[in-house]
Amino acid sequence: MTWLITGGAGFIGSHVVRAMAEGGERIVVLDDLSTGRAERLPEGVPLEVGTVLDRAVVDRVLREHAVTGIVHIAGKKQVAESVAKPLHYYRENVEGLRTLLEGAVEAGVTRFLFSSSAAVYGMPDVDLVTEATPCAPINPYGETKLAGEWLVTAAGRTHGMATASLRYFNVAGAATPELGDDGVFNLVPMVFERLTADEQPRIFGDDYPTPDGTCIRDYIHVEDIASAHVAAARRLAADPAASLILNIGRGEGVSVTEMVGIIQDVTGRTDIKPLVTERRPGDPARVVASADRIREELDWSARYGVREMVESAWAGWRLRHP
Ligand SMILES: NC(=O)c1ccc[n+]([C@@H]2O[C@H](COP(=O)([O-])OP(=O)(O)OC[C@H]3O[C@@H](n4cnc5c(N)ncnc54)[C@H](O)[C@@H]3O)[C@@H](O)[C@H]2O)c1
User: Any bridge partners for residue 276, and if so which?
Assistant: First the structure.
């Protein structure tokens, strides 16, 4: 098979490219480099610069590289920006996907993997979020991911494509410092930013109904995300009728206070006391994956722990902020 990986020059995409290439898959990347960097790609992996919204580009890339499967990772991912620019998010994440799917169906692509998110669940009121937990996104970003899953599943069913939507939980870490996340939108880089500026890391609310009062999340190493893609791609290759929706998480919750403590420890900045501020609107108290289905379906489970995520992310941060 030849796989097209969209968004392969981004944070998660570059890890998936690396893992799939090491797994012996033939790969081509389509990326508009809006947030990605070409130097993230390993030597020998062809990069086509363009947007998934451009049907002519999609058609040409699928044809010229004789693509048989697609891993669609390209997308916009910032919740606050999605609230400010919902039409932009629907265009990029839904219209972009629809255009790509249309090209895929016409080109006879038979395997399709889609980057979804735990954001589809919104504010789940359960201990462990299973794939059967109702989806109720609370921002346009989460809505575009849920609509994306519907598009993928419907197109797969009607046009004979094996599909998988992978719902990532809180992604952190890096395989190498060069591949680290450039953005400062998640807890780990946000705390790095404060600590390296000699400022107190912020904890948004300590009055949640959790043991230490701070929000609990399921952090997952980006290398584990990548190995889950390799397993899912193999499953789709072997099972032309697959139609999967899978959480990718560790199934273990870590509170913000615990996470900030680990980050302070790893960075050697235990001298700065965190600052508790007001809750942010739309932050659920607890979002932890049940990782049962992915273990049963793909025989996959996470290998890395939280400390390894923070240490590898810190090496990347220091490279980019010497
Ligand atoms: N990072 C997370 O914690 C997380 C969690 C859940 C889901 N996701 C999803 O994973 C995917 C990748 O996230 P990331 O963290 O690697 O973000 P990223 O911004 O690093 O990567 C996105 C990549 O897609 C490219 N891209 C964006 N729009 C494009 C378009 N229209 N055509 C072609 N390429 C385009 C960008 O240049 C970039 O290389 C996104 O779909 C995101 O919604 C991320």
Answer: 203
DSSP 3-state of 135: coil
Nearest CA to ligand 1 atom 32: 51
Inter-axis angle of helices 306-320 and 187-196, nearest 10: 50
- Ligand 1: atom nearest CA of 119 is 6
Please give the number of the atom of ligand 1 that sits closest to the Cα of 74: 24
- DSSP β-ladder status, 170-172 and 219-221: parallel
Choose one of 17, 18, 32 to mutate for the ligand 1 pocket test, by most ligand atoms within 8 angstroms of C-beta: 32
The amino acid at 246: L
CB count in 10 Å sphere of residue 307: 12
Pairing of strands 47-49, 26-31: parallel
Strands 254-255 and 216-217: antiparallel
Active-site positions?
Answer: 141
| pLDDT per position as a tens digit, 2-54 | 999 999 999 999 999 999 999 999 999 999 999 999 999 999 999 999 999 99
| Cα–Cα dist 184/193, whole Å | 8
Q: How far is ligand 1, taken at its centre, from the CA of residue 322, in Å?
A: 25
State the distance from the centre of ligand 1 to the C-alpha of 266, rounded, in angstroms.
27
- Per residue in 103-126, pLDDT tens? 999 999 999 999 999 999 999 999
205: left (phi over 0), alpha (psi -120 to 50) or beta: left
**Could you tell me the distance, in angstroms and rounded to a whole number, from the CA of residue 211 to the centre of ligand 1?**
33
**Ligand 1 atom closest to Cα of residue 8:** 39
Structure-block tokens of residue 184:
């400062």
Distance 94 CA to ligand 1 centre (A): 13
Calpha distance 52→157 (Å, rounded)? 22
